[in-house]
Design goal:
This protein is α+β, with helices and mostly antiparallel strands. The protein contains five helices and 31 strands. Helix 2 packs across helix 3. It is elongated and about 115 Å long.
């Protein structure tokens, strides 16, 4: 009996070994990887100088074997990327392998020499993990894209563009149908173009400003892009005036700090108390000033594309100029310099709590307490142009309200960082402070804007 049982065990083991061997041979000979999933996505609607192409390849079974990315144009085949991997052996069902790969390639005239306008195809070929006897066909995915290498046509129409540091101006120009974004670039500042009301097809204009400390005329350019990033640039400024900086010294007293700092900190809970009046003042005068500036830029970006004004801008009635635009201020506390900032508006003083008039017709886009400016009103006059009224004791208008030139909007005060009762008045071009004196001057508006824009600007004086 024992001999029979031993023989049965022997044949059982022999059968199992034979079955395992056959399974091993079968897997090794026939088990191939699954068909990889391939996706190709272009970040732009065509190929220009640098078009990002996002590629994803996935095979969760035996894992990726290899893939390559090619560009095809006519008879030309350009290898852009090739990668190889070690998939699981056919007889293994778990273990280390790469199941998913993503990459982004920049494809365009700067990376593929000799690229021509027309059509091109991005082709991804992903190999399946083979077996000893089977080498299945790869998975091939293709994406056809137009190739665009020429920038939009860009033609300057207006002439006699004279602009100064801190000043404003306008330019009229034409683009062709390929332009999807155009306007004026001034260093890091961007001023978008708009269709010229009543103008010809593709005729556009842009209002723009220049920072008061900007010195590089070569960096003031008209720019247009097409939908794949091809860029056209053109100079258009005929004369650029550099102005000297004004200097002023502000002496800080403890009584001033005690009066202005706590209310601002209370109205701005996002500011963290630094433990002393002076440190909190420096936080307000520096960091909060920057935060307020960014908010004004955001407001400017939402300006309505319409001229809401027809006459020159008004200066506050019966007011004396206490401080000018573009003063570089040095702040002194207990005999030592503690800060430097730029004053980018006009300080206008009259009697205490004097009436403030809207400088021109427009739409109220801010009417609230606003950081360093205290109680503040901002009026949108269209196409990025806004006026700002700060340090008010009271506000007589609401956000969303239409106001007319000369309409009372509040009264002067000493809120925010004001040393005494006055109005801080500023003009903004998409959030950039510009010199109000130009906008108070009807002759300047006529010569610099009306003569360029013609009937598009409904200016009456």
């Amino acid at each position: 009996m024992a001999r029979k049982r031993g023989r049965r065990h022997f044949f059982t083991i022999l059968f199992l070994a034979a079955a395992a061997g056959l399974a091993y041979l079968g897997l090794n000979a026939f088990r191939v990887g699954g068909a990889p999933t391939v996706s190709i996505r272009a970040e732009l609607p065509g190929i220009g100088k640098r078009t990002p192409i996002a590629i994803a390849v996935e095979e969760p079974g035996r894992g990726l074997a290899s893939f390559k990315v090619e560009l095809l144009q006519g008879e030309r085949v350009e290898l852009l990327e090739e990668r190889e991997y070690k998939p699981l052996d056919p007889w293994l069902f778990w273990g280390q392998r790469v199941t998913h790969e993503e990459l982004t390639l920049e494809v365009g005239s700067e990376s593929v020499k000799g690229l021509r306008e027309g059509l091109a195809t991005i082709r991804v070929t992903a190999e399946r993990a083979p077996s000893f006897l089977r080498h299945p066909a790869p998975v091939v995915e293709e994406l056809e894209l137009p190739v665009k290498l020429r920038p939009p046509l860009l033609q300057v129409v207006s002439t006699h563009t004279y602009v100064a540091q801190g000043g404003s101006e306008a330019v009229v120009y034409r683009v062709d149908e390929n332009s999807v974004k155009d306007g004026v670039s001034v260093g890091e500042w961007w001023f978008p173009g708009y269709p010229l009301p009543g103008g010809e097809e593709h005729e556009r204009f842009a209002l723009f400003g220049v920072p008061f400390d900007f010195k590089e005329q070569s960096q003031i350019r008209l720019v247009a892009w097409d939908d794949v990033g091809n860029e056209a640039r053109a100079p258009f400024v005929d004369r650029f005036l550099v102005k000297p900086f004004r200097q002023d010294t502000i002496r800080l007293s403890d009584s001033f700090l005690e009066r202005v700092v706590p209310p601002i900190m209370a109205q701005t809970p996002e500011l963290a108390d630094r433990g002393s009046l002076l440190d909190n003042y420096l936080l307000v005068n520096g960091e909060l000033r920057k935060i307020n500036g960014r908010t004004l830029i955001e407001l400017g970006e939402k300006s309505v594309p319409e001229f809401l004004w027809q006459r020159r801008f008004m200066q506050m009635q019966n007011a004396q100029v206490m401080s000018n635009f573009a003063e570089r201020r040095t702040y002194v506390y207990q005999g030592r310099e503690v800060d430097r900032q730029d004053h980018l508006g006009f300080d206008l003083a009259s009697t205490g709590m004097a009436e403030i008039q809207a400088a021109n017709s427009g739409l109220v886009v801010m009417a609230r307490y606003f950081g360093i400016y205290g109680n503040t009103v901002v009026i949108d006059h269209g196409y990025g142009l806004m006026s700002l009224y700060g340090h008010m004791s009271s506000i007589a208008v609401e956000e969303g309200q239409r106001v007319e030139r000369g309409e009372a909007i509040g009264r002067t005060g000493a809120t925010g960082l004001a040393g005494g009762d006055h109005l801080h008045f500023g003009m903004l071009m998409r959030g950039l402070p510009v010199d109000p004196r130009e906008w108070w001057d009807g002759h300047w508006i006529h010569d610099r804007l009306k003569l360029k824009l013609g009937p598009a600007l409904p200016f009456k004086e």
